[in-house]
Amino acid sequence: MKNEIPFLQSTTAKLIMIGLLTLVLFVPLAFVQNLIAERSLRKQEVISEITAKWGDSVLLYGPIIKIPYTAHYPVKNATETIPETEYAYFFPEQLEGHIDVNTTEKKRNNYEAVVFSSAMKFNGTFTKPDFSSKGISPDDIQWDKATLLVKANNLKSIKDGMKIKLGEKVMAFETATNDPVTFVSTLETPSFSISEYFTDEKIPFNFNVAYDGSRELKIVPIGKTTSVSMKSNWKTPKFTGYFLPGGNEKKSDNAGFEASWKVLDFNRPFAQHYFGDFPELKDYSFGVDFIIPVDEYQKNERASKYGFLVIGLTFLVFFVIQSISKISIHIFNYTMIGLALVMFYTLLISITEHSSFLKAYLIAGIAVVLMISLYSVSILKSKKFATFIGLSLTALYTFIFVIIQLENYALLAGSIGLFVILGLVMYFSRKIDWNAIKEEN
Q1: Which of 187-191, 400-404, 414-418 comes out lowest in average pLDDT?
Q2: Are the C-beta atoms of residues 100 and 119 closer than 8 Å to each other?
């Protein structure tokens, strides 16, 4: 009668123990992921400090003609009316903008923030304001108290002030109001008599502004026809907002990008003039986010998410070798190998903070592969198996690195890679008779 193998020494028991060990190793792996999240949060705090001093995101739109007029409101159960001063707002007939943006990277300790300096040039034309749609009497219009407005945020980062040339008159903007909710401020010129300017059908204007900022730059298309072109040395722009640039005119390459927008009045959901309250228009802005598509901490986070895959596949390779060679590998050996695989991610994040992700990945990967390969020589008593394990780990880490670098095709490449890995495991284990494996005491 055949001697029965004790359950704890059976293949099933070893598979269960390896599975449980894999689950236990998720605990230190989770601590590593928390460490990456904590370091990433610290980075965001430092970046916020840098950008707050340099300049936050930029939103700008204008110029807008503002003219006060007297509105007469009837009193209930009375024949008289109460006069109140209201304001009418008129947007440009044409608005053209040319924006040059130069981005730089500011560093503090191990952290890096993207900031920019922009030079904006705007020109266009106004047509004579028309109050007839509201039935306002010409005698109630205060033409001599007209002003020009520009709406903007991040005022502290405007360089050299702001002036506008309307016809032949040059006027300087001053801060009028600051909205604590939207963070959009109003810049306004001194009052002037606008009736003097509209001797012709249209009146030209132009103004320039130099702006420092970070993260994003946006414009609101307030012209009846708005044309804006933007040029920058930033290689990875994210076009955002209510309107995207023209598909045939957008260019992006290693030297930077060029983009242009053209928006007509019937493309946007707001009117060309307003009476009474001024609308909030920032939701209809367009522009560019100056983003790093995948920063170093995001790469570390993505790499750590593949930790369970690396641990599981590595244990699987060891188990298949153990089954083929009849070499007994103790659960303690699996534990040491698993901890070495987890250590890869702590090495990766710590080295990344003082170098690039590529260098950190190479150093951490080579260190862990060498450690496990050398350890395998002693427990497997074979350089052939140790070499196979080293090559398998190298291929696995290379595969994960490629996936991390990809953006649009990461899911596709990962799915295909996992399918190929599964096929290889099935191929190499196809001839193993699991029922016939004898366990050594």
Answers
A1: 414-418
A2: yes
